[in-house]
Design a protein that fits this description.
Strand content: 15-25%
Distance between the termini: 35 Å
Radius of gyration: 43 Å
Oligomer: single chain
Number of domains: 4
Shape: elongated
Number of strands: 30
Largest sheet: 5 strands, parallel
Length: 767
């Protein structure tokens, strides 16, 4: 399902508006997003009621408003901020101006509040303090040591981690142990900071990234937003008729657009039925274990993956509890779910077979949901089958005594046959046709032969036997089961341990064949025995009993499934409310003492640290410690010249070569990413944080968190906040949520909008 983002035009010419819409639709066509566009008709400011109605109807996520319309709104004293509040959602306001400088000058002269990238609070500026051209280095000069200040006003206390301190608020500068008047301090650096540019003067000091700078002004491209007479302007872009993709204005706008898309996608995924069901833990409290287990399976089949069964007295307050013993309402916390299933009988169900049943047969709702009538019909059929088998078993029991002697005789015969087979397997095979003397060195010999002439020959050729030779004519002594049963094995059995066994070649062939026939015959006799038949009948009866239990479980499943359908909406509503609460105020500040912040951009890590210090600053939490783990991540985008030359030689086909190149790059990057994450994980492990904050794209975050959860047992239990950047899809977010991760979407690097990130983070902590 695609995420819908609504763009509304207020006062921009249709030609220019079409240019913007075409550009953005093409830019985000590969995103899982649907962009809509609407235009509020011109002349709306003459009738604010019409405008309000049209605006609500368009349901905008981003409003593009012309400079002319904005000025007219304020002139007509329309409360634009209240107007947007009517929409009950966070809306981005983009002002499109023909000329940036006059508009910004007007806003600054009206004491508008300006929010600058890397600066934690809004500030007021003079018109000449905002520059429209230049690079960052022109606006600031880094001090090698961070100064301290005395201020002109006692109540003035701006010293937070990222801030701007204007000249008018500074009385003295304390630097390297000495105190200087402000002008005298600036004189030390005039040759570095003025650059012989007339009129360029320091306007104050900026602090961020744990550094201090002398500030000469701010770039317009560094402006994050402007607050003017209650109207929050998220961005101002100059309408030149064309879109310059490389301009800072458009890059900022793209980052904002991506941020809105990601936020809406995150909201969609977090509030999706599937997400809520699979992430909210549900416990079933009941005195009937079998009912609880089957109802648990019903819930899992509907998507509730974190489901378990507990005793009535063992409920967990952090879970949604469903009490199936509905009459025992007093033992269940308020706002939990009570369902009475006492009328459902489980008398005919063997609880002991439950786990085997569900694990072996894997309940599939579509296959087991049968009509009660059909289940009962099969039960009747099985009952008849069981009775027939029981009667047959009684008859067999009467002949059992007669079979005992036969069974014993077969057992003895089987044992003797096994001894003979073992002797044959250890025998020395002699071929009488070769007429060779057989030289042996042993006391006794056992000889198997099949005719008298053969026996006489082997007796002459068998030398070295010092005592006895025992000759066995297999055609006379071992040709039937009855004869084998009569063999005295007490004497020949000793040849398994001492002496030598000799068997003529032809005798070996005969014995091998006969022994296989005799074994098969004994097995048949065993199968025909009444005891064995009785066992087979009992096994069949057990099989039918299992099927009866299976059908009873089907019946119970169907009954509980009907109960679930009646209470389905109530269960989901409770889980939905639980999910909403869990997304907000998730962490208690007093429990957070150590925080690790991992980001692919150092500046983002510092900014996150800055506003977290503000959020967590309180009397009961005075000394939160922060760690900013860092490791360089140098991903490969192309092969080296040597690798490329080798690949060209080995793969002349262009398509195959391109595939191999991409695989090589992917493999190299996989190794680099693994090394990168392992370095970060080690740093985090040593610090042992109470909270881990990760700022990366969704795909890398998922890999990192899986590594963190699996490789370090202690860290695996730590709460994690994931600040997702870049393009992502709903599956990425769903995967993170299943890892018990709190997800925030932010394009801080692109937009510098620390304020929305701060607000999102603030909602995760109890006030």
């Amino acid at each position: 399902m695609k995420t819908t983002v609504n763009l509304t035009n207020a006062g921009i010419g249709q030609k220019h508006w079409k240019t913007y819409i075409t550009y953005f639709k093409k830019k985000y066509e590969n995103f899982d997003v649907h962009l809509t566009s609407d235009t509020v008709k011109s002349g709306w400011f003459n009738n604010l009621n019409d405008f309000q109605g049209n605006l609500i109807k368009s349901d905008p996520d981003i409003i593009f408003i012309s400079e002319k319309v904005l000025v007219a709104t304020i002139q007509y004293k329309a409360d634009f901020s209240e107007l947007m509040k009517v929409l009950e959602k966070d809306i981005r306001l983009i002002v499109v101006s023909l000329d940036l400088q006059p508009l910004c000058t007007t806003l600054l002269n009206s004491r508008a509040l300006v929010y600058i990238r890397n600066i934690q609070q809004g500030i007021t500026l003079e018109a000449n303090q905002l520059w429209y051209q230049g690079v960052n280095d022109d606006t600031k000069f880094e001090l090698e040591s961070i100064p301290d200040f005395t201020f002109t006003q006692k109540e003035y206390f701006p010293m937070i981690s990222s801030c701007f301190i204007p000249n008018e608020n500074i009385k003295f500068v304390i630097w390297k142990g000495k105190t200087y008047p402000l002008i005298q301090f600036y004189d030390f650096f005039k040759e570095y900071i003025f650059n012989n540019v007339p009129g360029r003067k320091p306007i104050g000091f900026t602090f961020y990234d744990e550094k201090c700078y002398i500030c000469m002004g701010f770039l317009q491209s560094e402006v994050v937003k402007i607050e003017y007479q209650g109207v929050v302007i998220d961005h101002i872009i100059q309408n030149s008729g064309n879109i310059d993709e490389k301009s800072s204005q458009i890059k900022y706008l793209e980052g904002m657009m991506r941020s809105v898309i990601n936020l809406k996608m995150l909201e969609t995924v977090q509030n999706a039925k599937q997400t809520i069901k699979q992430n909210i833990p549900v416990q079933i409290a009941t005195t009937s274990e079998i009912v609880g287990k089957v109802f648990s399976e019903v819930l899992k089949d509907d998507g509730y993956l974190k489901t378990g069964v507990v005793g009535i007295q063992s409920t967990d307050k952090d879970c949604i509890t469903i009490n199936l013993d509905g009459k025992n309402c007093e033992i269940i916390p308020k706002k939990e779910i009570k369902i009475d299933v006492s009328k459902i009988s489980t008398n005919n169900i063997d609880n002991g077979e439950f786990d085997l049943f569900f694990h072996s047969y894997n309940i599939v709702p579509d296959l087991i949901i049968q009509q009660t009538k059909e289940i009962e019909t099969e039960k009747k059929f099985i009952r008849k089958k069981i009775q027939v088998l029981k009667d047959k078993k009684k008859i067999l029991r009467s002949t059992q005594v007669l079979n005992h002697q036969e069974q014993y005789q077969n057992f003895i015969t089987q044992r003797k046959l096994d001894i003979l087979i073992s002797l044959l397997e250890s025998a020395l095979i002699w071929d009488e046709k070769q007429s060779k003397i057989l030289e042996l060195s042993d006391e006794n010999a056992l000889v198997f032969y099949d005719d008298h002439i053969q026996g006489s020959i082997i007796n002459k050729q068998l030398k070295g036997i010092r005592k006895n030779k025992l000759f066995v004519n297999i055609t006379e002594k071992l040709d039937t089961l009855e004869k084998i049963a009569a063999v005295d094995t007490d004497y020949i059995e000793q040849f398994l341990h001492s002496g030598v066994v000799v068997c003529c070649k032809s005798s070996q062939i005969i014995l091998d064949r006969n022994f296989r026939i005799f074994k098969h015959k004994l097995l048949q006799e065993y199968d025909k025995s009444s005891s064995n038949q009785s066992k087979k009948i009992q096994a069949k009866i057990d099989e039918y009993h299992f099927r009866m239990n299976e059908l009873s479980l089907y019946e119970l499943y169907n009954q509980l499934n009907q109960v679930f359908k009646v209470n389905k909406d109530k269960i989901f509503k409770t889980c939905q409310n639980k999910n909403k609460k869990s997304l907000q105020n998730k962490f208690q500040k007093q429990h957070i003492r150590r925080i690790s912040i991992v980001s692919h951009q150092k500046s983002n890590a510092y900014l996150t640290k800055n506003f977290l210090e503000e959020i967590l600053r309180s009397d009961d939490n005075p000394d939160t410690k922060f760690q900013l783990p860092w490791s360089d991540l140098d991903l490969v985008s192309s092969l080296s010249s040597e690798e490329m030359a080798k690949t060209i030689l080995e793969y002349p086909d262009t398509r195959e070569r391109e595939y191999v190149i991409q695989q090589d790059i992917a493999n190299q990057n996989a190794v680099e990413i693994a090394t990168y994450f392992n370095r970060l994980l080690y740093q985090i492990k040593v610090f042992d944080p109470d909270l881990v904050i990760l700022n990366h794209d969704a795909e890398l975050l998922y890999v990192f968190i899986k590594m963190l959860r699996s490789e370090y047992e202690v860290l695996g239990l730590k709460p994690i906040i994931a600040i997702v950047t870049g393009e992502f899809i709903g599956v990425d977010i769903d995967n993170l949520l299943q890892q018990n991760v709190s997800v925030i979407a932010s394009e801080l690097y692109e937009t510098g909008d620390i304020y929305r990130l701060r607000d999102s983070m603030q909602t995760l902590f109890f006030a």
